[in-house]
Write a structure and sequence with these properties.
By secondary structure, the chain is α/β, with parallel strands linked by helices. About 40% of the residues lie in helices and about 25% in strands. The protein folds into 2 domains: about 55 residues, Orthogonal Bundle (Arc Repressor Mutant, subunit A); about 150 residues, Rossmann fold (3-Layer(aba) Sandwich). Strand 5, helix 7 and strand 6 form a beta-alpha-beta unit.
């Protein structure tokens, strides 16, 4: 089997089964495990899958431009944002991550709701402009251009000093074995701190992120 055909078959199997396990798959296809591992390494280098011990998982599309991500799964994002807004209680302190799904929370939140919103996303902060009873706290730092949110030591320290009631977290992958993942190491560390500072965390993930994984665990 030609290399291109073999790798196309691997991607088809990955899409169908949700994972690839090297040893049984090599036996089924009549390939050496070394050949199969080499194929998986090359496909991982191209961003088409994520290598894990013993095989591979579907890769989450972590490097798409911000505008492209905003256009993905628009109906699911509206439903998730509305569900999130319904969880915000009177007087609560709520951390909101900078994902494109989270951008719709302000529009779904009742105008009379009194709460404190803490975010490292300038766009999220501005989205609450017309909520007169919302206290807005913007945590600063170096802007991570991929998501247009603050990041770095100053941002982590800002969340470390906070004790919030609720956190709405964004991720690029949700997998039953790997857990929550994202595509950047610094961003993963920040998200862990956001988790730690809140009494309760809700992950907002559209269907395209389910069963997928990115390189950095949260």
């Amino acid at each position: 089997m030609l290399t291109t055909s073999r790798r196309a078959l691997l991607l088809e199997r990955l899409d169908r089964d949700g994972q690839l396990v090297v040893t049984p798959l090599a036996a089924e296809l009549g390939l050496s495990e070394d050949t199969l591992r080499r194929d998986l390494r090359e496909l991982a280098a191209e961003g088409k899958l994520l290598r894990v011990h013993g095989g591979a998982l579907p890769a989450s599309p972590t490097h798409r431009p911000l505008e492209a991500r905003r256009a993905m799964e628009p109906e699911a994002k509206v439903r998730l944002a509305a569900a999130a807004a319904g969880l915000v209680g009177e007087g609560q302190i709520v951390v909101i991550d900078g994902g494109t799904t989270h951008a719709g929370i302000a529009a779904a939140l009742p105008r009379e709701r009194c709460c404190t919103i803490v975010t490292h996303s300038p766009a999220i902060a501005l989205s609450f402009e017309h909520h007169p009873r919302v206290e807005i706290v913007l945590i600063g730092g170096r802007i991570f251009r991929h998501s247009m949110v603050a990041c770095g030591p100053a941002t982590v320290e800002g969340f470390a000093r906070l004790r919030a009631d609720l956190c709405f977290l964004g991720v690029t992958g949700v997998h039953p074995e790997i857990g929550l993942t994202t595509g950047d190491a610094e961003e993963a560390a920040l998200k862990r701190q956001m988790l730690d500072c809140a009494a309760e965390t809700v992950v907002l993930a559209t269907p395209d992120k389910l069963g997928r994984a990115s390189p950095w665990g949260i």
